[in-house]
Amino acid sequence: MTNTFRVQMPHKTEVHAGVLEEDPVLDIEGFQLWYGSKQALFDVSMRIPRGKVTALIGPSGCGKSTLLRSVNRLNDLVESVRIEGNMLLNEDAIYGPGVDVIELRKRIGMVFQKPNPFPMSIFENVVYSLRIDGERDRRVLAESCERSLRGAGLWDEVKSRLSESALQLSGGQQQRLCIARAIAAEPEVLLLDEPCSALDPIATGRIEDLIEELKGSYSILMVTHNMQQASRASDFTAFMYLGRIVEFGRTNDMFMTPHLGQTEDYVTGRFG
Amino acid sequence: MRLAEAVARLCISIGGAGTIAAVALIFVFLVWVVVPLFGGAGHELRNQKTVASAAASAPPFAFGVDEYRDLGFVLKHDGTLVTWRTDDGKVLDTRALFTVPRLNSVSTRSPDGDLAFGFDDGSVRLGRISFHATYADMTSRPELAEVTADRPVIVAGGQLARRTQEGQLRLTGIAVSIDEPVQLGLTAPITALDVSSHRDTTKVVALDARGEIAAARIETRENLMTGEVTVDIRSHSVPLRPRATGPPTRLFLTGPGDVLLVTWDDGILQRHDLRDVEAPRLAEEFDLVDGEGSLTAAAFLIGKTTLITGDSRGRVRGWFGTKPAEAETPDGIRFVRTHDLDAEGPAVTALASSSRSRVVSAGFADGSVKTFHVTSHKLLIDTAVEGGEPITALVIAPKEDGLMAQAGAHVAAWNITLEHPEASLSALFAPVWYEGYDQPRHVWQSTGGTDDFEPKLGFWPLIFGTLKATFYSMLFGAPLAILAAIFTSEFLHKRLKGPLKSITEMMASLPSVVLGFIAAIVIAPYVQGLVSTVLALFFTVPCAFLLGAHLWQLLPQNAYVRLSGAPRFVAMGACLPVGVLAAFAVGPFFERTFFDGDIIAWLAGAQGDSVGGWLLLLIPVTALLYVFAASRFVGPWLRSMSAGWNRPQAARFEFARFGASLVLVFATALGAAHVLDGVGFDPRGGVFDTYVQRNALIVGFVMGFAIIPIVYTLAEDALSSVPAHLRLASLGAGATLWQTAMRVVVPTAMSGLFSAVMIGLGRAVGETMIVLMATGNTPIMSWSVFDGFRTLSANIAVELPEAVRDSTHYRALFLAALCLFALTFVLNTFAELVRQRFRKRAYQL
């Protein structure tokens, strides 16, 4: 009899106690976004804690990826996008008349759903962000490459073939390469957009372990479809639905004792 | 439903197979027409008869065969003329032409039978021995009724009557006419003489037994009122340079009669300049046999310019006069050996040249006979008389369909077919030493005004022209098309992209004849009036865009971000007219400063030093070097220095650097130009040459315009098919659009871009109308931007209508078509292969 879905529209984000005390790396304030006349994000406000992994969960089309892409302004490339509100990256406005998008993006790393290494060598893939900054010093590049590949847990597998094409790597390796590429720029926040959705379970496991390792050194905002992954890998979880953040709290609390029935329905798999 | 599917499938298969078959068929047809070009000549021995009364141990004075190869004649040393039937060897007619004074020498017979006879009293007579053929009705004379289908040949009244395939009766006989004796001031027996006629003037040279040579001009004038003929003879002695070996043995007078060649048996030739008969002078003396053996035979080729010599060591060689710059002879001409036709072997005993082409036959002491095409050095026929007696006389039938050789008392006759003797792979594609040229050259000159003109079918000027047209149009069109494609695919607002692409593709529908017409009638004259401005455009337009970009950087941050949409686009568009206007100011200024005020006169070499030309060439080179050096060496240093600067500072610095680099590039180029000018190099004659109104620059513009649409479309497709997630990855990493385009999109789409360029190349190679109309169609090999050229395709269009079917020229044009077909086929196949690879790779991403 309690099987009926509780799908009433929430109006305000249910934020768990303690989340607001965390030091935010990214502060989203009343962010709204329209694709043409269709509103995709409604009054999103959340603070992403520094040095932690924050998972964004929610059913397909709820705006998770849109929110993620709004952080590094990749949505600017889409026709007729209009926004309201703002985000602050370490207290610097992301949206605003004088913001240099290129400089901003250099401070934010992003890993996409599908592994997308460039059709060039493994080495050049990793040091791409340094290259576009004009770095030519071979030593600096090599150091950065090794550090990033080690960081992404890929160094031992590829150190002997750095000059080979990145396209020869397996899917899981390619995704870790993309992570290495993202962390080579030493970003202030790392955005992961369903990083495991195109991978097999073993590769997924490795990526999750990697996320675990990166925690602490990097602040991570991760979109995922996979409840187990969110519960395993993240410190905080936000549940999104229809363009709104419904509930935001520590992952444990979100999965064990969600405040809202809607969240409970979703995390227990009763709807989604 | 099932039936419809089956029918559709059948139609599609037939269509597909039909297309492939049609292309293959065209290829097969081209090959089928071209192949005979390289086929050898054919020959078969027709008969070998004994003609006892014509037998002679020494070469006879004259030896000939008629046009239909029914009759042969020989003029023996005793002055008797023997005519015989070639089919059975029976003598038809014997007449004693000269008894007293005794005939002592005869000149070489000209194609129409003209001869000069020298006698032992020192007198000379001109005359002619020829065949005449008449056609008669079978019923006109009673004895002709004997001719039947079974017995087609009879002898009637000293003539040979032959029933032709058309059922007519052809009567062939020999005709002799001899003029009155002429005294040239020689009294000893004439041992050699030659004659050349030009209009009413005949030049005769004669050599007597004492070694004296007389040259005479005989002018025949006919009084139109009275019909009285006056003959005016002026004879002069030609002083030889004395030689210890005795008197010379042979005389040759060239076609126009202005050069006398005198040879001794030991191979020495003295060439005398006879342009002024009253004052002959020795021009040069040289050895025809390299001191080995002796000269045994010599004959002129058709046109009487090239001398063919044969010696006792079996070498057959061709010689003619050239005009090299360094000739030390008094008349500036030097005779050189231009053809080595046969290597050593049995001695050459007889030479005969064809009366219709540059074909020569040589008879040897072992009875072998070889026939060559002189220009192409092609050995056409290699045969021998039965019995192996030395060949004493040789003749090529007037229609080049037969060959007749006398060896002792035997006369052998061959049927020969000489198909395209002048064509061979080396004659078509390697440099060929044509008569009158001072070295072997690639020449295309398929038709000429005179009968003895030799078609010159060197393909390289055409292939060169094709490549030149392709090069210059790709140089202009490919970068524009590729950059335009990058711009539309990577930078342009999506809403503008669609219309712009359609408009560019519409450019492709412009008929090329319209483009060619505009190029020839509008652009070419316009550019000729504004050469300096047009050249300046190549510098001012890029500079205007660079300047605009640097100025844009100077905008305050807020304005920069705010104006980055449409206003920037408009400002960018404004750079073009600014660049053009600047060219109108800069061009004439440069023309005044470096080209003495007239660049066309400068190009013609009339004025000025070479600094301006070098400057034009060196500015792009130094600019590229500068960009390379700056990014390589100055860049890292600058980067570390400017790390702490803010935006306006960096922008101001960059602006200053741009200005400084412009000055630097110009100064470096100017300095280098002065150095090169000082050293003495001059670009004129190479990259620059005399300005021709319709030139490669015009073709570059217009054909570039013609290939832009196709290259643009394919390149844009290639760039657009680069997966969006790669772009996002790059942009997400903080790359600018330009960095994303240059580092990720273009390298990923490289093979697609490459194949787009190759397709454009294929189009440029085959393009006809533009090059036909906008170049002068001059088949010359010059890289100069300001020279015309002729492409394979334009050449076919120009010449095929006037080529005689199945002639060498006709087949050569088909070979041009085959070359073109092969060229475009290879280019397109290559492009397609690259594209396939690219598709596969794109699929992986």
Quick gist of this model?
Chain A has 272 residues and is α/β, with parallel strands linked by helices. In chain A, 33% of the residues lie in helices and 25% in strands.
Give a structural overview.
The complex is a heterodimer of chains A (272) and B (845). In chain A, strands 1-11-10-4-9-8-7 form a seven-stranded mixed beta sheet, with helices on both faces. Chain A has a four-stranded antiparallel beta sheet with strand order 3-2-5-6, with helices on one face. Chain A has helices at residues 64-71, 101-106, 122-126, 128-132, 138-151, 155-158, 171-184, 201-214, 227-233, 251-256, 261-267, and strands spanning 14-15, 24-35, 38-49, 53-57, 81-89, 92-93, 108-111, 189-193, 220-223, 236-241, 244-250. Chain A is an alpha/beta fold. In chain A, α5 crosses α7 and α7 (171-184) runs parallel beside α8 (201-214). In chain A, β10 and β11 (244-250) form a beta hairpin. The model of chain A is unreliable at 1-8 (pLDDT under 50). Chain A has a domain at 50-65 and 98-267: Rossmann fold, CATH 3.40.50. Chain B is an alpha+beta fold and 845 residues long. Among the domains of chain B are: 66-99 and 123-183, no CATH class; 460-525 and 694-844, MetI-like fold, CATH 1.10.3720. Helices cover 41% and strands 25% of the residues of chain B. In chain B, the strands form eight sheets. In chain B, strands 6, 7, 8, 9, 10, 11 and 12 form a seven-stranded antiparallel beta sheet that branches. In chain B, β7 and β8 form a beta hairpin. Chain B is elongated, with a radius of gyration of 37 Å. The relative contact order of chain B is 0.07. Chain A binds chain B through residues 72, 74, 77, 79, 97-100, 102-110, 112, 114, 116, 118-120, 128-129, 131-132, 134, 136-137, 167, 178, 181-182, 185, and chain B through 494-495, 557-558, 561-562, 635-636, 639, 723, 725-726, 728-736, 739, 743-744, 747-748, 841, 844-845.
